[in-house]
């Protein structure tokens, strides 16, 4: 697998001594992002906090960085990312920050260096709209939320 070279810069004193985003294993799609906080940040139940990541990136045109929750934080502490996945556009040069949300019932404390999110680099396509009077029909049609049911046996057998 060929790797994409992306320029990254540390942002301020709060980034010093922290690892840059990195893959935990050879098969990881996302790079772990550490909290670049100088002091602990407590997130109360039902609240959110913007946590600095301590870096900015220079993505090539046609790429985005998606900021996603970490499954361990979600499963163990009900901590997620409010706008998941967050998108870092190729023309953004500010510091990456994570909107961590506490969906649990207990306060959650973010410590300096905690792995709080993951970042996936994605290629994307831009679209041009072609306005038409009507769209081609499909078997699904306009069926929306829950239209196929919740039980595979009932859906397929009656």
Overall description:
This protein has 158 residues and is mostly beta strands. The protein is built from two helices and twelve strands. The protein has helices at 71-77, 152-157, and strands at 7-10, 22-23, 31-34, 41-43, 48-52, 55-58, 63-68, 79-81, 86-88, 97-102, 108-110, 115-123. The longest helix has 7 residues, at 71-77. The radius of gyration is 20 Å and the shape is globular. The protein starts with 6 loop residues before the first strand and ends with a helix.
Task: Break the fold down into its secondary structure elements and pairings.
Elements: E1 7-10, E2 22-23, E3 31-34, E4 41-43, E5 48-52, E6 55-58, E7 63-68, H1 71-77, E8 79-81, E9 86-88, E10 97-102, E11 108-110, E12 115-123, H2 152-157
Antiparallel strand pairs: 1-6, 2-3, 3-12, 4-11, 5-10, 7-9, 7-12, 8-10
Helix count, DSSP H or I runs of 4 or more residues: 2
The count of β-strands is: 12
Profile the largest sheet.
5 strands, antiparallel
Order of helices and strands: EEEEEEEHEEEEEH
Q: If you compute it from the alpha carbons, what radius of gyration comes out, rounded to the nearest whole angstrom?
A: 20 Å
Shape: globular
Widest sheet: strand ordering: 2-3-12-7-9
Helix content: under 10%
Structural class: mainly beta
Low-pLDDT parts are: none
């Amino acid at each position: 697998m060929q790797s994409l070279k992306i320029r990254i810069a540390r942002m301020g004193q709060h980034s010093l001594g922290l690892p840059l985003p990195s893959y935990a294993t050879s098969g990881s799609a996302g790079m772990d992002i550490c909290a670049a906080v100088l002091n602990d940040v407590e997130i109360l139940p039902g609240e959110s906090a913007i946590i600095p990541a301590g870096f900015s990136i220079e993505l090539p045109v046609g790429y985005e960085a998606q900021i996603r929750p970490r499954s361990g934080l979600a499963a163990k502490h009900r901590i997620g990312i409010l706008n998941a996945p967050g998108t870092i556009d190729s023309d953004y040069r500010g510091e990456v920050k994570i909107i961590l949300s506490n969906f649990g019932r207990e306060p959650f404390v973010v410590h300096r260096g905690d792995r709080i999110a993951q970042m996936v680099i994605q290629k994307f396509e831009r679209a041009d709209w072609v306005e038409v009077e009507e769209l081609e029909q499909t078997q699904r049609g306009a069926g929306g939320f829950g239209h196929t049911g919740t039980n595979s046996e009932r859906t397929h057998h009656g």
